[in-house]
């Protein structure tokens, strides 16, 4: 499904800002613009199309490889089981996706997220998110770089990056001044517990 925006309702118009007369064709979007486009069906997510917004620019995400998808699915399942085992299912919910607003001009689609059970929003707000997970194969540099900083600046409590190739989990906790005050690098021999559930004790050998 696609939608054509008319001259008066295009979300691009108000961002042109005179650039056209200089031969520049780049338009910067806001997260509200992206939400409008997604609601209108501009991006057909049923066919696997995934886009993110970073600093006003659309980023088309490549298709997931099996190792990438398997790692995130296993970790999400382990988190779900831990939440149920600890009797926390009325407070927390694990999502295998969803869109998180991180600023007015950036919104990401993580591979996993733990959110408040009662969260209701088309795009999730940072205060509704307790943990964000990115599974990284071809995107490790971005996930450990610009995304790391963006999630911290947004105030996300905790951010995990699965390094699929090297079988490692990068754990970032407690955002502070646009970055993180705590960082751990764990292997398949380790276990991990998120801040919201310190007794979860998830064995990473079940992920890698």
TrEMBL record:
Residues 45-201 form the Putative restriction endonuclease domain. It comes from the Bacteria. Transmembrane segments: none annotated. InterPro entries: Nuclease_put_TT1808, Restrct_endonuc-II-like, Uma2. This is Putative restriction endonuclease domain-containing protein. It comes from Caulobacter endophyticus. The lineage of its organism: Bacteria, Pseudomonadati, Pseudomonadota, Alphaproteobacteria, Caulobacterales.
